[in-house]
Design goal:
289 residues, SH3 type barrels, Fumarylacetoacetate hydrolase, domain 2, 2 domains, five-stranded antiparallel sheet, two-stranded antiparallel ribbon, 7 helices, 22% strand
């Protein structure tokens, strides 16, 4: 029997969420996790100090889009889910909010299902959430660009004229994106401290760590087909914090090359931010929620 869910005006989770937690029913981030008793990598959603295992509850996703693709929640990465696009993401988020609501009994009152579906975050090991096929690093902070420009070119030429007109960035090595906690090897390269002598090779003496925002993009587009700015939010799946490690003295040495310029801006809204920006009175009601 197919069960239909009804939306509720108030969104309160039946999972106890501490007031200091970042993961309320309004912020449900995805991740890939495993546990000692189940080493399989699987998709989970954070709620309070718990992780909801989507592979366990995949049959409860009965909306018109995601009901045809419940198998994506059995995958070891988020790639297949991200590839489904914006409508699938919205539908999944709304279903999760209903299932976690204290007004919905499907998950709340099923003791057996709850025992299998929830894992305490302290018992989980987190993994890289996606197979990353491409990585583009944008140079989007004016203060940072100015400071680096002074270091490389002096105060008079700190900010290049193109920086104010287009998104400056470069393609990085996608294979170097790793999950938090992975040991980092100090990078090595050539420097030329004495301009009268040949360059020397060795480890960086100025290892720099930059805290950045990284966006996961999904949904795709046809080769050569641009994505308009007003459609960007339909391709931005989510955001993570990212440390960008680099050997600044290697950049400032004779190895340094100017960053490439890229013509496609990357900006938009997603998930919680998009919902918060919308008036709840304009949100459609669906009989499958």
């Amino acid at each position: 029997v197919t069960r239909s869910y009804t939306t509720t005006k108030e969104k309160m989770s039946f999972i106890k969420v501490d007031a200091t937690s970042d993961f309320s029913i309004h912020n449900l981030p995805y991740g890939i996790f495993s546990t000692s008793d189940n080493p399989k990598h699987r998709i989970g959603v954070a709620i309070g100090d718990q992780i909801l295992d989507l592979s366990v509850i995949k049959s409860l996703f009965r909306g018109p889009v995601i009901s045809k693709h419940q198998d994506v929640f059995d995958q070891p990465t988020l790639n297949a889910f991200m590839a489904l696009g914006y409508e699938a993401w919205k539908e999944t988020r709304k279903t999760l909010q209903v299932l976690l609501s204290d007004c919905e009994s499907t998950l709340k009152d099923d003791v057996s299902l709850r025992s299998r579906a929830f894992v305490h975050q302290s018992a989980a090991t987190m993994h890289l959430p996606a197979d990353i096929g491409d990585y583009t690093d944008f140079y989007s902070s004016r203060d940072h660009a100015t400071n680096v420009g002074i270091m490389f070119r002096g105060k008079e030429n700190a900010l290049m004229p193109n920086w104010l007109r287009l998104p400056v960035g470069y393609h990085g090595r996608a294979s170097s994106v790793i999950v938090s906690g992975t040991p980092i090897r100090r990078p090595s390269g050539q420097t030329r401290p004495d301009q009268t002598k040949p360059p020397v090779f060795g480890p960086s003496k100025q290892l720099d760590i930059e805290l950045e925002m990284a966006f996961f993009v999904g949904g795709g587009n046809r080769l050569g087909e641009p994505i308009p700015i007003n459609k960007a939010h339909e391709h931005i799946f989510g955001m993570v914090l990212m440390n960008d490690w680099s050997g600044k003295n290697l950049y400032a040495s004779h190895q340094y090359h100017p960053y490439c310029t890229l013509q496609n801006p990357l900006l938009g809204h997603f998930g919680s931010l998009l919902e918060a920006a919308a008036s709840t009175s304009t949100l459609p009601q669906h009989d499958w929620l």
